[in-house]
Design brief:
Blueprint lengths: L1 E6 L2 E6 L6 H8 L18 E4 L2 E4 L12 E3 L1 H4 L7 H8 L9 H14 L5 H8 L10 H18 L4
Parallel strand pairs: 1-5
Antiparallel strand pairs: 1-2, 3-4, 3-5
């Protein structure tokens, strides 16, 4: 099936099998390997990507469902190559260890903070309950998200 979508700000036209997941499409057809696959049941959150502004599981979403959509992967969070404020906060708070789950956590938090830059710690923890990290506790991750809120507030403020 032929699909056309925008991935990380770039148009992509692809021919995919009807049963190809969006995660597999991103990884194999487009070489965007930051989207990780682990459980392939939508439980672990490692494959989380952003489709039309919403965090979704790439392993449960068929590529054909993304036809016409705007998709953002972890590679697309920092458009100019510099770390985003969220990624910088992760670095400062030592919010990752092996890094396998990090892409899914970053995209989950980016979607959350883009929608609600005033989110509180309890809601951050609730949203992160869908992302499994086996290497570290979630305290530094939550602290990093709380720090990054200021940058998302500035980004959402209308220009004077």
């Amino acid at each position: 099936m032929k699909i056309a979508l925008t991935v990380n700000g770039r148009p992509a036209a692809l021919d995919v099998a009807p049963r190809t997941t969006l995660a597999d499409c991103l990884r194999h057809a487009l070489g965007l390997t930051g989207t990780h696959l682990a459980c392939e049941h939508g439980v672990c959150g490692a494959c989380t990507i952003i489709v039309d502004g919403a965090a979704v599981r790439g392993c449960l979403t068929l590529a054909v469902q993304a036809d016409g959509a705007e998709v953002t992967t972890v590679e697309g969070l920092a458009g100019d190559g510099d770390l985003t404020p969220l990624q910088e906060a992760f670095r400062r708070h030592h919010a990752l260890q092996c890094g396998f789950c990090t892409a899914g956590i970053l995209t989950t938090l980016h979607a959350l903070l883009s929608e609600n830059p005033d989110v509180e710690a309890d809601e951050i923890r609730e949203v992160l309950s869908g992302n499994i990290c086996r290497c570290t506790g979630y305290i530094p991750i939550v602290e990093a998200a709380l720090e990054a809120r200021a940058a998302y507030r500035r980004a959402s403020d209308p220009a004077p």
